[in-house]
């Protein structure tokens, strides 16, 4: 089975699918499945744009709404996870996963599905230690804190995934597992991204939670994005006993979806030829969801997951064979995910733009149906109930600390991990600066700039595509396809020049009570969408 894997597409679905169609036309390669590793940006309307954690000038409608409305349909089954630049209000409607458009499926906060016998798992968001132990309490309308914390990974999702015992074939995360760079061409990585050096050498780059999952799940393939560079690694796992067969994971990180970037990869995956072509529930995962349902938390309170330390009566929530069989019987052994997509919000109409449309907290009927079928808690319904009871607020106080700063400056209790990947000592010019437009702007009045009905055309280049060899060895010196020059157009996809730390000033933010200026560094992500955007007048 041929699987196409994409980095963050940032709403450019037309570009992504056109690239796949060109691949088929020129090389007779037709993927059976498309996986996207976050920053998908399923933006339906102007209200969704307000819920995306990017500076105002980057809030463009792009092309997802055409697939949401039914004007277009994804030509290949597409499965994606969330990243850190999403319409969080839309994805929040589907905490357990669901269809965001016909033939486009979101895995939820964490999830596992099956396609042609292949088990595909994933976890959405990025790791921040100061939010890791909180519940999913956020809901629209977001403020400056919750618009960001909404996409932060929580310990309950990691805990659920760690209950899985059966082998995983493919796993996706947005940020990289910490330490994975030690298992690939680290020298080449640092040549392309020199500003990663300090984090790589101190082993603080990436997500410790994802690393924990990597060591526990030991999937055959692990795909990521986020850092906007192509990188491959091969990790041989240690066995726990002499009887256990050796396992290894082939890791691949992909670039963002821009012209002339290596944002898409084709991988051959062994599958069950007798299996159908429908996306299916995973019985073990459903059983784990049922077992851990009592652990659902919708408050800001920090708490640890149950563990074998004498403080918890139960710490093993893995699914027994009996529990898995019960799930199969509940579904009459029909695991096919129903195609029950429905519009849950108005769709953008380029003829009637609504720049002042406000986001609302919505309970999606797909989630309602899923929870009713398996006896699970509807997280959004619980949040609404808690708000009505006054036990949880939808917003933080305005004077709380910005959470994009180093977590060591947070008043939160220590997390399960000593460090997080937000406290960068170096600056990544390939990501956006979240406070570039003024981090304290009022989200209720911020301007929205939808793209015109006919967005600018992208040239499609086969430098965007690689056919993955069995060894998964990737080099920046990979030869590009011979048709590149024929397809490229001048002036498009201009690369942003990399700049090292000493060429970029650190941003100073405020001072302390003693009058001493304190330095707080926020993640800088200037060029996530298009090269040369900074030079354009607004």
UniProtKB/TrEMBL annotation:
Residue ranges with Polar residues bias: 416-428
Cofactor: Fe(2+); Mn(2+); Zn(2+)
Segments of this protein annotated with the region Disordered: 386-460, 473-538
Keyword Cell wall biogenesis/degradation among record annotations: no
A GO cellular component entry from the record: nucleus
Biased composition (Basic and acidic residues): 386-395, 494-506
Xref: Gene3D superfamilies: 3.60.21.10
Biased composition (Acidic residues): 396-406, 432-443, 478-489
GO molecular function, one term: RNA lariat debranching enzyme activity
Subcellular location(s) of the protein: Nucleus
Boundaries of every Lariat debranching enzyme C-terminal domain copy: 235-380
Protein name per UniProt: DBR1 enzyme
Organism: Indicator maculatus
């Amino acid at each position: 089975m041929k699987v196409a894997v994409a980095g963050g597409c940032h709403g450019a679905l037309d570009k992504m699918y056109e690239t796949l169609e060109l691949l088929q036309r020129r090389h007779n390669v037709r993927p059976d499945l498309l996986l996207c590793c976050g920053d998908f940006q399923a933006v339906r309307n102007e209200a969704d744009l307000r819920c995306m954690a990017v500076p105002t000038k980057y809030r463009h409608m792009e092309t997802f709404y055409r697939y949401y409305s039914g004007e277009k349909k994804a030509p290949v089954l597409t499965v994606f996870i969330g990243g850190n630049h999403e319409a969080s209000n839309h994805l929040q409607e589907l905490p357990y996963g669901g269809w965001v458009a016909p033939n486009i499926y979101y895995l939820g906060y964490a999830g596992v599905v099956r396609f042609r016998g292949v088990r595909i798992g994933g976890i959405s968001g990025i790791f921040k230690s100061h939010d890791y132990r909180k519940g999913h309490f956020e809901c629209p309308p977001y403020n400056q804190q919750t618009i960001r914390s909404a996409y932060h990974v929580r310990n309950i999702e990691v805990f659920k995934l760690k209950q899985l015992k059966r082998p995983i074939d493919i796993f996706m995360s947005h940020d990289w597992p910490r330490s994975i760079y030690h298992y690939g061409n680290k020298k080449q990585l640092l040549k392309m991204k020199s500003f990663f050096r300090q984090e790589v050498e101190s082993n603080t780059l990436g997500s410790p939670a994802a690393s924990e999952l990597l060591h526990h799940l030991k999937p055959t393939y692990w795909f990521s994005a986020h850092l906007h560079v192509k990188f491959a690694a091969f990790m041989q796992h240690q066995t726990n006993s002499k009887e256990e067969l050796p396992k290894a994971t082939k890791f691949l990180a992909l670039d963002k979806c821009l012209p002339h970037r290596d944002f898409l990869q084709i991988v051959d995956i062994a599958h069950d030829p007798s299996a159908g072509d429908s996306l299916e529930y995973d019985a073990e995962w459903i059983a784990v969801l049922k077992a851990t349902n009592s652990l659902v938390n919708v408050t800001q309170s920090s708490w640890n997951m149950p563990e074998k330390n004498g403080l918890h009566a139960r710490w093993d929530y893995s699914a027994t064979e009996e529990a898995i069989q019960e799930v199969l019987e509940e579904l009459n052994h029909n695991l096919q995910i129903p195609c029950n997509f429905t519009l849950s919000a108005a769709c953008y109409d380029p003829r009637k733009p609504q720049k002042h449309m406000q986001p609302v907290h919505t309970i999606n009927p797909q989630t309602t149906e899923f929870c009713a079928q398996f006896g699970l808690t509807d997280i959004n319904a619980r949040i609404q109930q808690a708000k009505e009871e006054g036990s949880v607020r939808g917003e933080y106080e305005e004077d709380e600390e910005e959470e994009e700063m180093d977590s060591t400056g947070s008043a939160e209790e220590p997390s399960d991990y000593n460090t997080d990947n937000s406290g960068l000592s170096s600056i990544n010019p390939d990501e956006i600066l979240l406070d570039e437009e003024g981090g304290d702007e009022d989200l209720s009045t911020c301007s929205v700039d939808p793209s015109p009905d006919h967005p600018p055309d992208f040239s499609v280049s086969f430098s965007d595509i690689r056919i993955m060899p069995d060894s998964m060895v990737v080099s920046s010196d990979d030869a590009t396809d011979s048709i590149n020059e024929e397809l490229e157009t001048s002036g498009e996809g201009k690369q942003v020049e990399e700049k090292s730390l000493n060429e970029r000033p650190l941003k100073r933010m405020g001072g302390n009570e003693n009058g001493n200026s304190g330095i707080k560094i926020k993640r800088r992500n200037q060029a996530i969408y298009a090269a040369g955007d900074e030079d354009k007048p607004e």
